[in-house]
Amino acid sequence: MAIPINSDIVHTPPVPAATVMLVRDGLQGLEVLLVRRHGNSGVLGGVHVFPGGKLDPSDHAVDLAWLDRSPADCLQALAEPGLDAGTAVGLHMAALRETFEECALLLAQAATPAAVQQVRALTTAGEPFGTALQRAGLRPTLAGLLPWSRWVTPRVPSVTNKRFDTRFFVAAAPAGQLAEHCTFEATEAVWLAPRTGLERYWAGEIDLAPPQIMTLSQFSRLRNVAEVLDAARSRPPALVAPEPFDEEGCRVICYPGDPRHTVAERVWAGPTRLIYRNQRFEAEGGLAALLS
Question: Does 15-237 carry CATH code 3.10.28.20?
Fold first, then answer.
């Protein structure tokens, strides 16, 4: 299924959001979790994405003394000028909440199956996620969330008619828990090696949006969870503000370091632009460029 290209200007500011790339060591090496959004979803329907969603007011309603990371540490980790500590905590909590809601994985200390079921029952009954954790005696592992990048949708989004300011976190998958997709928002949860995900995309077996394509390209250069986490700790999260333009009837999205981008410094190795052709986003040099 081809992703429709948007050419309309979105005048509203980007909505704060959080996404989590859950990683684990599989038999053949690094694997990352992708969920396929329901076809009737208003954002990226049918596309395989990382679990995530927008910041909710309830994400701020959390007992700070219950957290394993201080607001100041959350703020420092995100390294965003002008961001306040309360929003930094909220973004971390949103990442945990969305992960639980979309794929049933609970990033919390001592999350036994019984405790996970208790949190599910409480949230289903309308209890805020943070309060449900505390009532179940579970401390959320904010320290296990490592900021990886920050994607800010341009005013002319290419694959949606909405704008988001999304913080991408990386986290090791919790041991002993089984990923299950939310039947309301998604139709599949699948663990894939980054290379396999890109190969399946290229073969037309799955759809990916540009942030997933470029992130999987980065992950394809890493061998295991330890290397991913070390890479996240080694630098501040990359700020990615895509700059789209149309050329010869094709939508081109360029990223920092591209000759057409206003930021000259690269934020990752590999391609600096994607071109929409053949009903998919392609890097110059094709699949090999994404995997090299």
Answer: no
